[in-house]
Amino acid sequence: MDWLQAQKSLTTALLPLYGDREAAIITDWVLENLSGWKKIDRILHRSAPLPPDTLATYQQYTRELLTHRPVQYVLHESWFAGMKLYVDENVLIPRPETEELVEWVLATSPFPQTLPDESVQSTSPFPQTILDVGTGSGCIAIALAKKLPASRVHACDLSPGALAVARRNAATQNTPVTFHELDFLNPATWNAFPPITCLVSNPPYIPAKERSRMAPHVTNFEPSQALFVPDDDPLLFYRALSRFALEQMPAGSPLFVEIHEELSEQVLHLFRSTGLKEVTLRQDLQGKDRMVKATT
């Protein structure tokens, strides 16, 4: 099998599952991973045969993709904020809307995106301490740590498997993040953190009743613990985040969260009713209610 045949075969196999456009995108991603060549180089080498070991891997990837396993898990890679991150079934696949949340944090951060000079560093090396709740792959925490090197970044998760992935990504990106394995919903665990001045979270927020309407590549492979909340209490994480912010953070500190588009009014009401200030809703690039910012 040559590279052109490999492209046509995989695209054809994926069409019933994903449609023309997505099947083509997944195929390009797989072939670039296998060959190390960009699309133009694969065109130039389209008649070259796949080496036997590469062909075996190609066939294995095809079998996995046909079970609806997401290509990010098949290849163990996902791009976020310009970083190639390792992912597996222990963590959610990073989404573009979460990148927008990070961009909002960066756009409104009053703290420098470069390290302070030596004289400043000696008196106040970390003017901002950020906490990422439910870090998963570590994508939010690592992106913020890279862009705000004058800040100290902490991140927590309940899942040991997720934290193993997050630590791996932080090491690969050579980015200092302090990780904590704990249940954030239990206030008794909050004393594990230093004083926090900025809180960020993409928590679980999908009511369990919506599972039947979701695509199998999500429900069969991505971790349910990171996706779903009880139907009778879909705001439980936002309530905990609000309480933490008001009890543990200085006045005027920002809180940024990703939300379910259909629960925006409920999140806004919760934050305002608990005493958070400057509660602001923001839509993503698709025009969906997706992010909320508030201050203590």
Written description of the protein model:
With 296 residues, the chain is of the alpha/beta class. The protein folds into two domains: 64 residues; 218 residues, 3-Layer(aba) Sandwich (Rossmann fold), CATH 3.40.50.150. The strands form three sheets. A seven-stranded mixed β-sheet has the order 5-4-3-6-9-11-10, with helices on both faces. Strands 1-2 form a two-stranded antiparallel sheet. It has a two-stranded parallel sheet with strand order 7-8. Helix 1 crosses helix 3, helix 5 packs parallel to helix 7 and helix 11 runs parallel beside helix 12. The termini are far apart. About 3% of the residues have low confidence.
Topology:
Layout: H1 3-35, H2 39-44, H3 52-65, H4 71-75, E1 78-80, E2 83-85, H5 96-108, H6 118-123, E3 129-133, H7 139-147, E4 152-157, H8 160-172, E5 178-181, E6 198-201, E7 206-207, H9 216-219, H10 224-227, E8 228-229, H11 236-248, E9 254-258, H12 264-274, E10 277-283, E11 289-295
Parallel strand pairs: 3-4, 3-6, 4-5, 6-9, 7-8
Antiparallel strand pairs: 1-2, 9-11, 10-11
Gist?
The chain is of the alpha/beta class. It has 12 helices and 11 strands.
Main-sheet strand order equals 5-4-3-6-9-11-10
Q: For the record, what is the CATH homologous superfamily label of the largest domain?
A: Vaccinia Virus protein VP39
**Low-pLDDT stretches:** 118-125
Largest sheet: 7 strands, mixed
Q: Could you tell me the mean pLDDT? A: 93
CATH fold naming of the largest domain: Rossmann fold
Number of strands: 11
* Oligomer kind: single chain
Helix-strand makeup class:
alpha/beta
Shape: elongated
Any idea what the CATH architecture of the largest domain is?
A: 3-Layer(aba) Sandwich
Q: What is the H-and-E element order?
A: HHHHEEHHEHEHEEEHHEHEHEE
Total discrete domains = 2
Rg over CA atoms, rounded to whole Å, is 21 Å
Percent helix = 40-55%
Distance between the termini: 61 Å
Q: What count of helical segments does DSSP give?
A: 12
State which percent range the strand residues make up: 15-25%
